[in-house]
Specification:
Number of strands: 19
Distance between the termini: 64 Å
Helix content: 40-55%
Structural class: alpha+beta
CATH superfamily of one domain: UvrC, RNAse H endonuclease domain
CATH architecture of one domain: 2-Layer Sandwich
Shape: globular
Strand content: 15-25%
């Protein structure tokens, strides 16, 4: 006989139990976690005094703030006592990354900064690299973006003439390539430079990357004079050209170059319910550019309790809590969250230039986990001040652009709803969202926040997810969901259908889907669309995604008729279907909207915000379909599937093999030794590939 379920507590019982647990907490450093009735993590926090910190949530009236809303939903809490505040910081950061709590400030866990790699070899090569570093090669960076790495590689090519070609290309050269002709490589592949001279150039390049350009310049000048004294005038002229190239580089970057070697400059700006942390990187004394980061749950940062004594807070005059001071506190909270999530568990430079002062305990924790002293400056002078001002301006511009884009997208969404005269019952949606805020009914209330199916999440996907989650919850149109379909093929070959999703005023790339179309007459777009819609909206397909508010079909009457047939068979409303028909002369801006429920065609003005949104979604569906079709077609034509059928050869290794040998024919013709020379291919796997392709 089954045991009876435990009795369900009412809110008063839960509250009394929580107060009892709070009263028994020790006054020691630790980490606390709040859970709702469904077991979802609401918040993770750290404290130097657990009892005082947690009590501030339960013994203060937070009113109708979001923190008050969070407290009203707490059904259970857990605490962990640690030895120091530094340990609490580390544990808090790890739990935030693992649990993804709803009420914490969250940054995308983006550690994929690019590096400049100098590979170990008799004649080392420079390369752009992104991924985990190892001790086998030398890495310089990280750089804020790919452009900064590639620009640095071009600079080093001009000055030091270091090769960038793959080892497979290098090993099979019989004459120098174009880079040698334009003086971007010294030609080690055909013995046009000695190993000693080449290694000296690599060493000078490394010193330059480490921030010692003046020392490199002195060495080059000494070498030039030595060649001249030995009457080796041709070699002296070559060194002279290097000195000239390096001098021009130093002159161009004289404004950015200082004695500081590695510095991170961070500026934060909060406005309009959103925040931006702009990270500028200085490596080897050179300012390499910046990158903007946008967190979610910023609204909670404004009202989050701080570590101060609650009694002292109660004595603070109301006037002291001005809008300016609240924003300042929010910006500090956001900056501290970024420092913890970005640096704890990773590398941190010796100097941080910050726009706001932060908790010294956080900096101490960064230094302890990095094994070095970390210096923080928030009122810099001279060049550091210039860098900080640039970072602050970059944060302001990035945040302004983000708010403008979001405002524009919201206006486009509303314009489309009005143009289509959709009966979405916005008042009911607004009431439902308000009820969610008041009652905390998270499950089911947020119809627009669907769990994503498992799959690879790209940087673009993560950004789209973050933007969607941070959409204002009081906006009823944030739950509007649009799905758009397109068909792509080449003369009937490799037919694919794409489905893209627009929700929360943003394209949700993590929810995109492609469908390989089979079993139809090649080139039959109608049959392809029918198959895609049936697979998407059949009983099996709707497990992954709810039926949207609008289904856009890239096509006219014929495609819409096919969609109507599918929807009638599935019992879905025909009013959802909207076809995007090419206008006169197939000109952009003259598209007309075709409906499946008998409504007349709708022609929108070319400047209409609604038509701009339709075009944006339709173009994204077309892009997604055609890129997938090309990849599938290439796989079919190159016989790539033959490689993927070999155990141990996945997409990455297959791509490396095809890139190295120029296609499956080249892989088939390669010897076992040549196959084993490919990165990631062991000797045993090379033998397996060799046998499988024979």
């Amino acid at each position: 006989m089954a045991e009876p379920a435990p009795p369900v507590e009412d809110r008063e019982q839960t509250w009394n139990r929580l107060l009892s647990e709070v009263a028994s907490l020790p006054g020691l450093p630790g980490v606390y976690r709040y859970f709702d009735a469904q077991g979802n993590v609401l918040y993770v926090g750290k404290a130097r005094d657990l009892k005082r910190r947690v009590s501030s949530y339960f013994h203060k009236n937070h009113g109708g703030t979001r923190i008050g809303h969070m407290v009203s939903r707490i059904a259970r809490m857990e605490t962990t006592v640690v030895r120091s505040e530094a340990e609490a910081l580390l544990l808090e950061n790890n739990l935030i990354k693992t649990l993804n709590p709803r009420f914490n400030i969250l940054f995308r866990d983006d550690k994929s900064y690019p590096y400049l790699k100098i590979a170990t070899h008799a004649f080392p090569r420079m390369a752009y690299y992104r991924g985990a570093v190892d001790r086998k090669h030398r890495y310089f960076g990280p750089f804020p973006n790919a452009w900064a790495v590639k620009e640095t590689i071009q600079l080093l090519q001009k000055v030091f003439q270091i090769r960038t070609c793959e080892d497979a290309v290098y090993n099979h050269r019989t004459r120098p390539c174009l880079l040698y002709q334009i003086k971007r490589c010294s030609g080690p592949c055909v013995d046009l430079v000695t190993q000693e001279d080449y290694r000296a150039a690599v060493a000078q390049a490394e010193r330059f990357l480490l921030g010692e350009p003046e020392a490199v310049l002195e060495d080059l000048q000494k070498r030039m004079m030595d060649h001249a004294e030995r009457m080796e005038y041709e070699q002296a002229a070559g060194v002279r050209d290097q000195i000239g190239a390096l001098s021009r580089v130093l002159h161009q970057q004289s404004v950015d170059t200082v004695m500081d070697k590695d510095v991170d400059v961070l500026a934060v700006k909060v406005a309009g319910g959103r925040a931006c942390v702009n990270l500028a990187m200085v490596r080897g004394g050179r300012h390499l550019g910046d990158r903007a980061h946008f967190p979610v749950h910023v609204q909670d940062a404004v009202m989050a309790p701080d570590e101060a004594d609650p009694a002292a807070q109660a004595d603070t005059p109301v006037e002291a809590h001005s809008a300016e001071s609240l924003q300042q506190q929010a910006e500090v909270n956001v900056l501290e969250a970024f420092l913890a999530q970005h640096y704890l568990g990773g590398s941190v430079p010796a100097l941080l230039v910050l726009s706001h002062p932060v908790d010294p305990a956080l900096i101490e924790a960064l230094g302890e986990q990095g094994g070095r002293k970390v210096t923080v400056v928030h009122q810099p002078r001279e060049q550091r001040r210039v860098w900080l001002e640039m970072a602050i301006k970059g944060a302001e511009l990035s945040l302004t652009r983000l708010l403008a884009e979001e405002g524009s997208q919201q206006a486009r969404t509303r314009a489309l709803v009005e143009a289509l005269n959709l009966d979405l019952d916005l008042d009911a949606r607004e009431a439902g969202l308000a009820g969610e805020r008041e009652e905390g009914a998270e499950d089911g209330a947020e119809a627009g926040e669907q769990a994503e199916p498992a799959g690879t999440v790209t940087d673009e996907t993560a950004h789209a997810e973050a933007t969607s989650r941070s959409a204002p919850r009081h906006d009823p149109l944030a739950t509007l969901r649009i799905e758009c379909f397109d068909i792509s093929h080449t003369a009937g070959e490799a037919t694919q259908a794409s489905c893209v999703v627009y929700e929360g005023h943003k394209m949700q790339s993590g929810q995109y889907r492609r469908y390989n179309i089979t079993g139809i007459t090649p080139g039959d777009d109608y049959a392809a669309m029918k198959q895609a819609l049936e697979r998407r909206y059949s009983a099996a397909g709707t497990k992954a995604a709810r039926v949207p508010d609008i289904v856009l079909i890239d096509g006219g009457k014929g495609q819409v008729a096919m969609a109507r047939e599918v929807f009638q068979a599935l019992g879905l409303p025909l009013s959802l279907i909207v076809g995007v028909e090419k206008g006169e002369g197939r000109k952009v801006g003259l598209e007309e909207l075709v409906f499946a429920d008998g409504r007349p065609k709708l022609a929108l003005a070319p400047t209409s915000a609604a038509l701009m949104l339709v075009a944006q979604i339709r173009d994204e569906a077309h892009r997604f379909a055609i890129t997938g079709m090309r990849a599938r077609r290439a796989s079919v034509r190159t016989g790539g599937s033959r490689l993927e059928d070999i155990p141990g050869v996945g997409p990455k290794r297959r791509a490396r093999l095809l890139q190295r040998f120029g296609g499956v024919r080249g892989v088939t013709a390669a010897s076992i030794d040549e196959l084993a020379s490919v990165d990631g291919i062991s000797r045993e796997l090379a033998e397996e590939i060799y046998r499988a392709l024979r």
